[in-house]
Design brief:
alpha/beta; 4-stranded parallel sheet; 6 helices; globular; binds flavin mononucleotide
Protein backbone atom coordinates (compact mmCIF):
# COMPACT_ATOMS: atom_id res chain seq x y z
CA UNK A 1 0.00 0.00 0.00
CA UNK A 2 1.19 3.53 -0.64
CA UNK A 3 -0.01 6.63 1.10
CA UNK A 4 0.19 10.15 -0.16
CA UNK A 5 -1.16 12.19 2.67
CA UNK A 6 -1.09 15.66 4.14
CA UNK A 7 0.18 19.11 3.07
CA UNK A 8 0.70 20.29 6.67
CA UNK A 9 1.76 17.20 8.63
CA UNK A 10 2.67 19.12 11.77
CA UNK A 11 -0.89 20.49 11.94
CA UNK A 12 -2.60 17.23 11.23
CA UNK A 13 -4.40 15.39 13.98
CA UNK A 14 -7.04 13.28 12.30
CA UNK A 15 -5.09 12.17 9.26
CA UNK A 16 -2.06 11.49 11.44
CA UNK A 17 -4.14 9.15 13.60
CA UNK A 18 -5.13 7.26 10.48
CA UNK A 19 -1.57 7.18 9.23
CA UNK A 20 -0.46 5.66 12.52
CA UNK A 21 -2.86 2.76 11.96
CA UNK A 22 -1.27 2.05 8.59
CA UNK A 23 2.23 2.38 9.98
CA UNK A 24 1.63 -0.39 12.50
CA UNK A 25 1.65 -2.82 9.60
CA UNK A 26 4.75 -4.31 8.03
CA UNK A 27 3.08 -4.66 4.62
CA UNK A 28 2.47 -0.92 4.17
CA UNK A 29 4.80 1.39 2.31
CA UNK A 30 4.15 5.00 3.33
CA UNK A 31 4.75 7.49 0.60
CA UNK A 32 4.29 11.06 1.81
CA UNK A 33 4.17 13.26 -1.27
CA UNK A 34 4.68 16.53 0.57
CA UNK A 35 7.84 15.14 2.17
CA UNK A 36 9.16 13.62 -1.05
CA UNK A 37 8.38 16.54 -3.31
CA UNK A 38 8.37 19.75 -1.26
CA UNK A 39 9.17 21.72 -4.41
CA UNK A 40 6.26 20.12 -6.26
CA UNK A 41 8.47 18.30 -8.77
CA UNK A 42 7.01 14.81 -8.74
CA UNK A 43 9.31 12.05 -10.00
CA UNK A 44 6.78 10.46 -12.33
CA UNK A 45 8.94 7.52 -13.43
CA UNK A 46 9.71 6.55 -9.84
CA UNK A 47 6.09 6.92 -8.83
CA UNK A 48 4.86 4.76 -11.67
CA UNK A 49 7.48 2.08 -11.02
CA UNK A 50 6.56 1.95 -7.35
CA UNK A 51 2.87 1.48 -8.14
CA UNK A 52 3.60 -1.62 -10.18
CA UNK A 53 4.77 -3.46 -7.08
CA UNK A 54 1.61 -3.10 -5.01
CA UNK A 55 -1.84 -4.70 -5.26
CA UNK A 56 -3.52 -2.05 -3.09
CA UNK A 57 -3.15 1.70 -3.53
CA UNK A 58 -4.40 3.90 -0.71
CA UNK A 59 -4.93 7.62 -1.12
CA UNK A 60 -4.82 8.98 2.43
CA UNK A 61 -5.66 12.68 2.43
CA UNK A 62 -7.76 15.29 4.15
CA UNK A 63 -10.52 16.81 2.02
CA UNK A 64 -9.57 20.24 0.74
CA UNK A 65 -12.16 22.17 -1.19
CA UNK A 66 -14.29 19.11 -1.87
CA UNK A 67 -11.37 17.22 -3.31
CA UNK A 68 -7.85 16.07 -2.55
CA UNK A 69 -5.02 18.50 -1.65
CA UNK A 70 -3.21 20.08 -4.57
CA UNK A 71 -0.08 17.89 -4.65
CA UNK A 72 -2.26 14.78 -4.62
CA UNK A 73 -4.21 16.20 -7.54
CA UNK A 74 -0.94 16.95 -9.33
CA UNK A 75 0.15 13.37 -8.67
CA UNK A 76 -3.06 12.16 -10.30
CA UNK A 77 -2.55 14.49 -13.26
CA UNK A 78 1.04 13.43 -13.88
CA UNK A 79 1.39 9.86 -12.67
CA UNK A 80 -1.88 8.52 -14.07
CA UNK A 81 -0.66 9.51 -17.51
CA UNK A 82 -2.11 8.77 -20.92
CA UNK A 83 -0.17 5.95 -22.54
CA UNK A 84 0.56 4.41 -19.15
CA UNK A 85 -2.53 4.44 -16.95
CA UNK A 86 -5.02 4.84 -19.80
CA UNK A 87 -5.26 5.27 -23.57
CA UNK A 88 -3.83 3.38 -26.52
CA UNK A 89 -4.55 0.05 -24.89
CA UNK A 90 -2.56 1.00 -21.81
CA UNK A 91 -3.84 0.32 -18.30
CA UNK A 92 -0.82 -0.25 -16.05
CA UNK A 93 -2.96 -0.19 -12.92
CA UNK A 94 -5.83 -2.31 -14.14
CA UNK A 95 -7.11 -4.49 -11.35
CA UNK A 96 -5.20 -2.70 -8.57
CA UNK A 97 -7.46 -1.91 -5.67
CA UNK A 98 -7.78 1.80 -5.01
CA UNK A 99 -9.00 3.07 -1.67
CA UNK A 100 -9.54 6.68 -0.56
CA UNK A 101 -9.13 7.15 3.18
CA UNK A 102 -10.09 10.70 4.02
CA UNK A 103 -11.03 13.21 6.68
CA UNK A 104 -13.41 16.16 6.47
CA UNK A 105 -14.04 19.18 8.63
CA UNK A 106 -17.77 19.05 7.92
CA UNK A 107 -20.05 16.73 9.84
CA UNK A 108 -22.68 14.54 8.22
CA UNK A 109 -25.39 17.20 8.50
CA UNK A 110 -23.12 19.67 6.71
CA UNK A 111 -23.21 17.25 3.79
CA UNK A 112 -27.00 17.35 3.45
CA UNK A 113 -29.36 19.62 1.48
CA UNK A 114 -29.87 21.93 4.49
CA UNK A 115 -26.25 21.82 5.56
CA UNK A 116 -23.30 24.07 4.82
CA UNK A 117 -22.08 22.00 1.88
CA UNK A 118 -25.61 21.31 0.53
CA UNK A 119 -24.70 18.10 -1.23
CA UNK A 120 -24.16 14.59 0.14
CA UNK A 121 -20.48 13.75 0.47
CA UNK A 122 -20.92 10.97 -2.07
CA UNK A 123 -21.23 13.69 -4.74
CA UNK A 124 -17.66 14.78 -3.99
CA UNK A 125 -16.37 11.23 -4.03
CA UNK A 126 -17.54 10.79 -7.61
CA UNK A 127 -14.61 12.52 -9.42
CA UNK A 128 -12.03 10.64 -7.35
CA UNK A 129 -13.81 7.35 -7.81
CA UNK A 130 -14.21 7.80 -11.54
CA UNK A 131 -10.53 8.71 -11.89
CA UNK A 132 -9.62 5.33 -10.47
CA UNK A 133 -12.27 3.51 -12.48
CA UNK A 134 -11.16 5.23 -15.68
CA UNK A 135 -7.73 3.69 -15.13
CA UNK A 136 -9.29 0.27 -14.63
CA UNK A 137 -8.66 0.19 -10.92
CA UNK A 138 -10.88 -1.73 -8.53
CA UNK A 139 -12.49 1.05 -6.46
CA UNK A 140 -13.06 0.24 -2.81
CA UNK A 141 -15.70 1.94 -0.64
CA UNK A 142 -13.94 4.98 0.87
CA UNK A 143 -13.21 5.28 4.58
CA UNK A 144 -14.47 8.72 5.59
CA UNK A 145 -13.99 10.46 8.91
CA UNK A 146 -16.33 13.43 9.22
CA UNK A 147 -15.98 16.26 11.80
CA UNK A 148 -12.35 15.27 11.90
CA UNK A 149 -11.06 18.16 14.00
CA UNK A 150 -13.80 17.71 16.61
CA UNK A 151 -13.08 14.12 17.56
CA UNK A 152 -11.99 13.38 21.11
CA UNK A 153 -9.51 10.67 22.08
CA UNK A 154 -12.19 8.00 22.46
CA UNK A 155 -13.64 8.77 19.06
CA UNK A 156 -10.19 8.66 17.49
CA UNK A 157 -9.66 5.27 19.09
CA UNK A 158 -12.92 3.94 17.66
CA UNK A 159 -12.08 5.35 14.24
CA UNK A 160 -8.62 3.82 14.33
CA UNK A 161 -10.06 0.46 15.29
CA UNK A 162 -12.57 0.57 12.43
CA UNK A 163 -9.84 1.54 10.01
CA UNK A 164 -7.67 -1.32 11.24
CA UNK A 165 -10.50 -3.74 10.49
CA UNK A 166 -10.95 -2.35 6.98
CA UNK A 167 -7.21 -2.58 6.30
CA UNK A 168 -7.22 -6.16 7.48
CA UNK A 169 -10.09 -6.99 5.11
CA UNK A 170 -8.32 -5.33 2.19
CA UNK A 171 -5.00 -7.00 2.93
CA UNK A 172 -6.71 -10.39 3.08
CA UNK A 173 -8.05 -10.10 -0.45
CA UNK A 174 -6.27 -12.06 -3.12
CA UNK A 175 -3.77 -10.11 -5.21
CA UNK A 176 -5.33 -9.46 -8.61
CA UNK A 177 -2.69 -7.99 -10.95
C1 LIG B 1 -7.51 24.50 2.47
C2 LIG B 1 -8.55 23.71 3.22
C3 LIG B 1 -9.71 23.31 2.57
C4 LIG B 1 -10.68 22.55 3.23
N1 LIG B 1 -11.79 22.16 2.56
C5 LIG B 1 -12.72 21.40 3.18
C6 LIG B 1 -13.89 20.96 2.48
O1 LIG B 1 -14.09 21.23 1.30
N2 LIG B 1 -14.78 20.21 3.17
C7 LIG B 1 -14.61 19.86 4.49
O2 LIG B 1 -15.46 19.17 5.05
N3 LIG B 1 -13.50 20.26 5.18
C8 LIG B 1 -12.56 21.01 4.55
N4 LIG B 1 -11.43 21.39 5.22
C9 LIG B 1 -11.20 20.86 6.58
C10 LIG B 1 -10.27 19.65 6.53
O3 LIG B 1 -10.80 18.62 5.72
C11 LIG B 1 -10.05 19.13 7.95
O4 LIG B 1 -9.48 20.15 8.70
C12 LIG B 1 -9.14 17.93 7.94
O5 LIG B 1 -9.77 16.83 7.33
C13 LIG B 1 -8.74 17.52 9.35
O6 LIG B 1 -7.72 16.55 9.25
P1 LIG B 1 -6.25 16.84 9.84
O7 LIG B 1 -6.38 16.98 11.33
O8 LIG B 1 -5.44 15.68 9.44
O9 LIG B 1 -5.77 18.12 9.18
C14 LIG B 1 -10.47 22.18 4.58
C15 LIG B 1 -9.31 22.59 5.25
C16 LIG B 1 -8.37 23.34 4.58
C17 LIG B 1 -7.12 23.78 5.32
Amino acid sequence: MRLPWHPYPSQSKATRQLLNVFMQRSDVSVHALYDLYPDGNIDVVTEQAALLNVPNIVWLTPVYWYSVPSLMKQWIDQVLARGWAYGEGQAALRGRRCWWVTTTGGDEFAYSPDGMHQRPFIDFIAPIEQTARFCGMDWQPPFIVHSAHQLDADQHAVTSSLLGERIEQLAALKATP
